[in-house]
From TrEMBL:
<protein>
    <recommendedName>
        <fullName>HTH cro/C1-type domain-containing protein</fullName>
    </recommendedName>
</protein>
<dbReference type="InterPro" id="IPR010982">
    <property type="entry name" value="Lambda_DNA-bd_dom_sf"/>
</dbReference>
<dbReference type="GO" id="GO:0003677">
    <property type="term" value="F:DNA binding"/>
</dbReference>
<feature type="domain" description="HTH cro/C1-type">
    <location>
        <begin position="17"/>
        <end position="73"/>
    </location>
</feature>
<dbReference type="InterPro" id="IPR050807">
    <property type="entry name" value="TransReg_Diox_bact_type"/>
</dbReference>
<keyword id="KW-0238">DNA-binding</keyword>
<dbReference type="InterPro" id="IPR001387">
    <property type="entry name" value="Cro/C1-type_HTH"/>
</dbReference>
<dbReference type="GO" id="GO:0005829">
    <property type="term" value="C:cytosol"/>
</dbReference>
<dbReference type="Pfam" id="PF01381">
    <property type="entry name" value="HTH_3"/>
</dbReference>
<dbReference type="GO" id="GO:0003700">
    <property type="term" value="F:DNA-binding transcription factor activity"/>
</dbReference>
Amino acid sequence: MSSMEKSELFKAVGKRIKELREAKGLTQVDLAGKMEGEFDTTNVSRIEAGRTNPTLYNLYRIAVALEVDLEELVRVF
């Protein structure tokens, strides 16, 4: 596994989330709506763009909403 800068990691995870979301035919609004608890669409946008560091719990919530394992969600290598 190669070393990755923090910003590169955020972008790679965000890109992976976007790929999985689009493969399921979901919009960012759909994804936010499927997540347990309240989650704003702008947060989905920031995560997918790699502009924020999502918490482990939020990554878990996204994985559940996308019906994938957390491991699959963060697989960037």
